Amino acid sequence: MMFPEPITDREVSLDARLEEAKRVAVMLAEQKRLLLRSNNLEFFIPNPGGQTQFLEESGCKLRSVFSGNRFGKSTVGVVEDCCWLLGYRPFYKEGNPLRYLGIPEHGVKGLVIASTWDKVKEIFTEEGDPAVDDRIGKFFEFLPKDCITNRSRNQHGAISMIEVTSELHGMTRKSILRFDTVRSFVTNPQGKESSDWDFIHIDEPIPKGMWDAISRGLLDRNGKAWWLMTPLIEPWMYHYAEEQFVKDPKNNWTYNGDTDENLTLSQEAKDVYFDQLSEEDRACRKAGKPVALSRLVIGNYDEKKHLLRGTPRGWKDPFTPPRDHTIVASTDTHPQTPHATLKVAISPLGEVFVYSERFERGAIKGEDSISEYILECPEASQLYYFLLEPAAWVEDQTTGRRYVDDFFEAGLAPQKGSKKRTDIITLMNLFFGNKDRKIFVLEHCRVFRHEIARWYFTKDNKPADKDDHLMECFGRLLVHDDFNYHKPYESSPVISTVSYDFGDSNPQSAYADNLQLNAI
């Protein structure tokens, strides 16, 4: 029988050293974990998508992130708040321009808006030790503990103010952060009018009236704002952010964030959650698309691509197309609401410009009428066809008159437009989604832009019968001839006195100098 070799003192010593090394390694790992948890702001790493871009756009007056659930919107919003309170972004090294970008050197006053005081506590101000507590509020998770010099509570028992003291470039800097809620505004709208702010952080959708009230507080301090939310309600915020970006992209930035940008979530967990949602809720809670927009009738229109600011190249001004452009027009008449008329210009290269609109009550013929709007404009002789809705041919049972009769008497020869709304909607979506067609809406066509961004399907899956008058005009023009180019002098006799002279004009691209690259 063989017996194992006896264990020597040397081997016992080696095993003991290995165990000690393991114990030290575990202890150091735990110390490192606690160190990181207590210095979350310094070691913060933004995700490479929307969070990084949000920080890179810190010079903007308004930054808007409309994101899905668990994107990290509240986290990056609080991180930015904390950096403003301290005066710099600790996770960027000295020499990196993002360390101080957009942040004033002086102490700041900031405002954070949530839906209720319970949400303020749950998300932002639940107290505890960041080294050991997993449910601590985000401000106490990221703000260095020794910088918080004061805090106060309101009548609800919730923390409503945090005071922060920091050192910046050898100077003491004092900042104040206050919290408020949508519910408080609904209870007392006038209570938001008097304060001034260096920054405002909106974490949940808010009513338009609340933004109008609190945003006045940014004027005195030349402040900035950031909106970070899942847009389940208040679609005005999405439209406003888009409009501000189009109007002034240097001072406004907007982003749609997807839940998939959060790399810490498992695919299985995401599938289980999102598969139970409706298509509209999934589009909002995963991709950050407002619920109202997920049911838009014309989903392929995009102002970042289709809106044209300023004067198109080759045009005299934004209201007068060159003489070699075809003009087509359509009117939607109404006995009670304003009459809607739309003019579209087509260049020799097939570019389509929505350039003129009229949405007013008034007469069909005579002074300041629809007919005058069409006949007495500089480009009247370029009109190739003019459409009316089919109802314009219906006789009034009392007078026996038709709307179309007034147009005939004014000197116009309108044609009957299509009434196939389903076909019109299908073609409009295909048209705006066609990368081979160049379609531009000029900035001053505000009613057209308002309608196309808000025309939605009802719960019965039917297009809403409101805010759709210029949509009807545009759809009829598209169905009628697909916006094909025709030389103006070959036009049908829409107007009785057509005189046209090309002169020395040459067909040329009508792209505007200020078009964004993705629109060309």
Write a structural description:
The chain is α/β, with parallel strands linked by helices and 520 residues long. It has two domains: 50-290, P-loop containing nucleotide triphosphate hydrolases (Rossmann fold); 304-519, 2-Layer Sandwich (Nucleotidyltransferase, domain 5). The chain has 16 helices and 15 strands. The chain has helices spanning 9-37, 50-56, 73-86, 117-125, 138-142, 182-187, 208-215, 236-247, 267-274, 279-287, 303-306, 370-375, 403-410, 421-432, 446-452, 469-481, and strands at residues 62-67, 109-114, 148-153, 159-168, 171-181, 199-202, 224-229, 252-257, 307-308, 326-332, 339-346, 352-360, 383-388, 415-416, 439-442. It has an eight-stranded mixed beta sheet, sandwiched between helices. Strands 9-15-12-11-10-13-14 form a seven-stranded mixed beta sheet. 37% of the residues are buried.
